[in-house]
Specification:
By secondary structure, this protein is of the alpha+beta class. It has two helices and four strands; from the N terminus they run βαβββα. Strands 1-4 form a two-stranded antiparallel sheet. β2 and β3 (39-40) form a beta hairpin. α1 (11-23) packs across α2 (54-73). 23% of the residues are buried.
Length: 74
């Protein structure tokens, strides 16, 4: 099972966040940055969900929050 650890509106931020989580040893769900199933480039009303396995979600959420906050501050 996967759990959403962040939701972002900007596809660029989603790509960087997924890469950063992967670089830190997390395992984000593949394809999360590509939009709704079957509709590439179309995202839900709340943005792009970044999902991690349940056992990684608590730690990954902390890192994701810090990274998103830093990216949006610039």
């Amino acid at each position: 099972m996967f759990e959403t650890v962040a939701t972002v509106e900007d596809p660029s931020i989603a790509r960087v966040l997924i890469a950063a989580l992967s670089a830190h040893g997390f395992h984000p769900r593949e394809g999360a940055q590509h939009g709704l199933p079957g509709l590439s480039g179309v995202y839900g009303p709340k943005g792009i969900p970044i999902e991690l396995p349940e056992e990684e979600a608590a730690d990954g959420r902390l890192l994701a929050e810090v990274l998103v906050k830093d990216m949006l501050a610039r």
